[in-house]
Design goal:
By secondary structure, this protein is of the alpha/beta class. It contains 19 helices and 14 strands.
Length: 467
């Protein structure tokens, strides 16, 4: 059947209903297809979604360009946003119906850190996809403390312990060491903090009276929008940053910095972005939420199906209406490799995962990990019992919507039942972190107690020994 790109969804549904009624009354031929009784009928079919210009917005672009949204009766406009705060605010006000979000944003908003609003997600957009980049000058000093492989290249993963002597030099000279991350509740902030702390550097704390996140810090972290990271590094305002692609590879191409580690080396197969909507929108438009999730699951699967699809995705993302970076830069991390120091390109088949490894499923344990990091660095200022973490995760992550969408795709023949995880929402415990510390989402307080740097138990920032 031809795509109904020029008809509204309501007109289409009216036509289907009329055909079904006519068939019932007059007897259609055996080749006619009546409307399915379980067919999704979105309450709202014209939607506007926001995104930030990063390669991990790819499921949205693919769902639109491959007409997966239209297949679900949805007519979607995608609109880039200036920064993560603007994006979140516009979802809350209803100017956007949903958006590509940092995994921490729905959680932080729901618990009231920053803007207070109940934001939910039925869909995880990807695994991995970030890197930490430092300036050429910092890299030159770091290399003195990094062992080499037999081929003369630096051994990976690179610990932040190699950065510590550089930070000590800045301190001795009375200069601050500044690094950028994209938002206080971003994966990037938590990954950068995790890496720094694992290497013996204190990334600082948040307090109710000081939300800079720089209390007792060895390194001063501040917010820089992703596309501005390379220019801010080049200007010398920051000495390094943690960001998603293509903005680490952009530093390599510009010759202004060196990515030293990827997030898959900090926490293998870490969850990255989610698709967020307000709880009110989902309550009022439950079938729309399922339809959106169906389209995004299909997009994730398409992205991971073949190298050819990835190459096509690179060309789509390079368009100015999406990421707007050079295709060559985007391809450097989207097609199975990652380039560190110029010329040091290494295999990275898992750097961006959009469907495999059940990447799209909204696991409660992923939500709990973000909440533990909020507590570790003081964004949650008081101790919470383990059941609070679980209840909060379940109020934000909505696997029931995901499962309804996936079941419909299985019925449609577009998904195999084996591609939907059988889970209670908690991944098995894992120690696939750079420091080898084991994480179990069922025991968040026990997990926090394992770290030398960071809040745990009943601690608050004031109770910590001075640096």
């Amino acid at each position: 059947m031809a795509r109904l790109t020029d008809l509204s969804r309501r007109a289409f549904l009216g036509g289907v209903a009329a055909i079904a009624l006519a068939g019932a009354l007059t007897g259609l031929s055996a080749t006619a297809q009546p409307a399915r009784a379980d067919m999704l009928i979105p309450e709202k079919d014209e939607l506007k979604f926001g995104f930030i210009k990063l390669t991990d917005m790819a499921p949205l672009a693919i769902a639109k360009e491959k007409h997966f949204f239209e297949d679900e009766g949805l007519y979607v406009t995608l609109e880039p946003q200036a920064n993560w705060k603007v994006l979140l605010d516009r979802v809350i006000t209803g100017e956007l119906d949903g958006a590509h979000m940092l995994a921490g944003q729905p959680l932080a908003a729901t618990i009231g850190f920053g803007t207070k609003a109940h934001i939910v997600t039925p869909f995880s957009m990807d695994l991995n996809g970030n890197g930490i980049t430092v300036s050429n000058a910092v890299w030159a000093e770091m290399k003195k403390h990094i062992p080499e492989n037999a081929d003369g290249r630096p051994q990976h993963p690179i610990s932040a312990s190699a950065l510590k002597p550089v930070v000590d030099q800045y301190k001795a000279a009375g200069k601050p060491f500044n690094m950028g991350m994209v938002f206080p509740v971003s994966t990037h902030n938590y990954e950068l903090r995790y890496w720094l702390a694992a290497g013996g550097l204190n990334p600082g704390y948040y307090t109710p009276s000081d939300t800079s996140g720089q209390v007792k810090a060895d390194i001063l972290l501040s917010v820089t929008p992703p596309p501005q990271m390379p220019a801010t590094l080049e200007a010398g305002t920051i000495q390094g940053y943690c960001v998603g692609e293509p903005w680490n590879q952009a530093a390599v191409f510009k010759g202004i910095g060196v990515p030293v580690i990827t997030d898959t080396e900090i926490w293998k197969d870490n969850p990255e972005k989610v698709f967020g909507m307000t709880a009110g929108f989902v309550e009022e438009n439950s079938q729309t939420a399922v339809a959106v999730t169906k389209a995004l699951i299909r997009a994730g699967k398409w992205l991971d199906e073949s190298p050819e699809n990835r190459k096509e995705a690179v060309q789509i993302l390079a368009r100015p209406e999406y990421v707007g970076a050079d295709a060559e830069v985007i391809a450097n991390s989207m097609t199975g490799t990652f380039e560190y120091e110029k010329g040091d390109k290494r295999p990275a088949p898992d750097f961006n995962v959009f469907f495999e490894k059940f990447a799209t499923y909204p696991y409660y344990s992923d939500a709990v990990w973000y909440l533990t990091q909020m507590r570790r660095w003081g964004q949650i200022s008081e101790a919470k019992p383990d059941d609070w973490y679980e209840e909060t995760a379940k109020s934000v992550y909505l696997p029931d919507i995901y499962r309804q969408a996936a079941a419909s795709l299985v019925d449609d023949g577009r998904l195999e039942a084996s591609e939907v995880p059988q889970t209670d929402g908690y991944k098995p415990a894992t120690s696939a972190f750079i420091d080898g510390v084991e994480y179990d989402g069922r025991t968040p307080n026990a997990y926090l107690k394992k770290f030398e740097i960071g809040l745990k138990g009943d601690e608050d920032v004031a109770s910590l020994a001075s640096n």
